Amino acid sequence: MTATTESGQARALGHKVISVKPCDDYTLHIVFSNGEERIFNAQYLLKSQVFAPLNNIGFFKLAKPGIVGELSWPGEIDLCYDTVYEKSTPVKAVSPKSDMV
């Protein structure tokens, strides 16, 4: 989906975070408002002082969608949904196993 800026240029509309499932390896399984499921690897955030609390896996697992569709943790720690979408990878569809004879 796209929108038009004041100058007439097309720009993509952000896909908001609607569901988050934290994993033990500092990744998040995220469902976006467009229905797409993606994996966000948050390990790069652990090096930043701003995101230092995420080094505690218990705290990391408190991730949830924020009130405007961002990725959010307690203590006003959040990440814009556009960044989360751009830095995540699509979940690959699992094909059903075929019966081998």
What is the fourth-level CATH superfamily? Answer: NE0471-like N-terminal domain
Question: How many domain units?
Answer: 1
What is the first-to-last residue Cα distance? 45 Å
Mean pLDDT: 86
Order of helices and strands: EEEEEHEEEHE
Annotated CATH topology: NE0471 N-terminal domain-like
Low-pLDDT regions: 1-5
The CATH architecture classification is 2-Layer Sandwich
* Rg result: 16 Å
Classified by CATH, the class is Alpha Beta
Specify the biggest β-sheet: 4 strands, antiparallel
Instruction: Say how many strands there are.
Output: 9
| Helical proportion, percent range | under 10%
Overall structural class, as computed from helix and strand content, comes to mainly beta
State the helix count: 2
User: What's the arrangement of strands in the largest beta sheet?
Assistant: 3-4-5-9
In terms of DSSP E residues, the strand content is 25-35%
Tertiary shape: globular
Describe the overall structure.
A hairpin with a 5-residue loop joins strand 1 and strand 2. With 101 residues, this protein is mostly beta strands. The termini are far apart. The chain has helices at residues 57-60, 81-86; strands at residues 2-4, 10-12, 17-22, 27-32, 37-41, 64-65, 71-73, 77-79, 88-90. The strands form three sheets. A four-stranded antiparallel sheet has the order 3-4-5-9. Strands 6-7-8 form a three-stranded antiparallel sheet. The protein has one domain (15-90): NE0471-like N-terminal domain (NE0471 N-terminal domain-like). Helices cover 10% and strands 34% of the residues.
